[in-house]
Amino acid sequence: MATRGPYAKGTAKRAEILEAALEAVAQHGTRRTYVSEIAERVGLTQTGLMHHFRSREELYEEVIRARDEHDRATYADAPTGIEGFFAVIEHNQEVPGLVQLYVEFSAEATHSEHPSHHFFLERYASLRTALERDVALARESGDMGGNVDPTAVADLLIAAADGLQVQWLLDRSVDMGGRLRALWSSLCLASWADHA
């Protein structure tokens, strides 16, 4: 049974706002995208738009969440788990505004009082778990040896990806995907070393 009435309209308008915000931020970044511009794209006033989101932080959090859902749907069928991670990072080069939003907003959220602090804690935990699974797949396939701590590998990949995104925002010649693949290859090679 389809949902009708004001709730359904509100949900549909919220989805429309998120789509417009994703598009605007991907094209222009957060510095050149204003809530008023997003509101105009969906035929609302700024006040009308903010009726659907409690704050700018909630809007940006939902933009990142929508982007993550899109990336999961798009790259879930990668040949091996880690390839999906690399594909997302390589795709990021096509959406510099979203990279900027992620870098700046995640840095702001390091403060425990920030409204999106918990969101980023959960996001990193989820990504860590996914990358730990990728390490397990690599071990099962023989690409990675047994001398490896899956959590440490996941944390290194996350830290490298975040750092490379900052470097790429400063210098677009940085090959984020290539550098992450090189790190992965080095970690795979090191995982076979005898540490006795």
TrEMBL record:
Domain HTH tetR-type, residue spans: 11-71
InterPro entries hit by this protein: BetI_C, Homeodomain-like_sf, HTH_TetR, Tet_transcr_reg_TetR-rel_C_sf
Highest taxon above the source species: Bacteria
GO terms assigned for molecular function: DNA binding
Chain residues forming the annotated DNA-binding region: 34-53
Keyword tags: DNA-binding, Repressor, Transcription, Transcription regulation
Pfam family, one: TetR_C_6
Name of the featured protein: TetR/AcrR family transcriptional regulator
Organism the protein comes from: Microbacterium sp. LWS13-1.2
